[in-house]
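Holo model, cytidine-5'-monophosphate. Inputs:
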Amino acid sequence: MSDPHSPIWAVVPAAGSGTRLPSAYPKQYLQLGDSCILQRAIDALLAVEAVQGVVVVLSARDSLWHKLPASTNSKVTTAVGGATRAESVTAGLETVCSLAQDESTMVLVHDAARALTASSDIRRLIERVMLSPEQGGLLATRVQDTLKRAVKSINQAGSSANTIAATVSRDDLWHAQTPQMFRASRLLATLKENQQLVASGEITDEACAMEKAGYSPALVEALAPNFKITHGRDLDMALALVTLLEKDQRE
Ligand code: C5P
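Output:
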């Protein structure tokens, strides 16, 4: 049933150290054009009129947050994260549930490391999820390339190499992204109930936890680039796109 009146909050886990991207700062603070990665992720959420508040989850050792314009925005609050992304998301959800104080509150969990997410995609996600809010949903992209399952074998030089064991059908396969949108209290309870599966790595995102609990989250195709900045090459690509966008806006 449609439920257009639920408050909508966002949780941005930003307590990671980004070890796969060599830099003096955690990756969420790297500059991309006019602002840093984390500020961009928050701005995309704040530009969506329906979003009432954003909880940014920071490392207990964070020393850079206070330099961001978002740190003085009245819609933005912080929470202290944990050792894993799941722990940080849980801390953010607890803050949302105590601030929003409304059982019907919906939450968008959005990685700080997705600096390019378009507000128009977030609006489309909200519109779709609010048609069946109990099930929730997420931004995602269809798998485009042919998929191969690899097997390790020893090549003639005696070293281990990947070779193809099988071609896997890509029909109906999608890449899960964020934001992922669910009822905040339901998601928090589900993550807590499945703590062991989260710790063992069997549950890697919010949607997976909700699937285990029997829900069928909606896949909403992201139309704008929405990749996560993990490696140096992702940062280079994001910078190229942002430079183009900012040049277009100035002209
Ligand atoms: O490391 P990865 O890119 O998978 O992290 C995804 C998101 O989770 C990032 O925004 C990162 O800051 C966040 N994270 C967190 N707490 C951790 C680990 C990661 O908030 N302990």
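The chain has one domain: 8-140+177-250. The domain at 8-140+177-250 is CATH 3.90.550.10 (Spore Coat Polysaccharide Biosynthesis Protein SpsA; Chain A).
Archived with the compound record.
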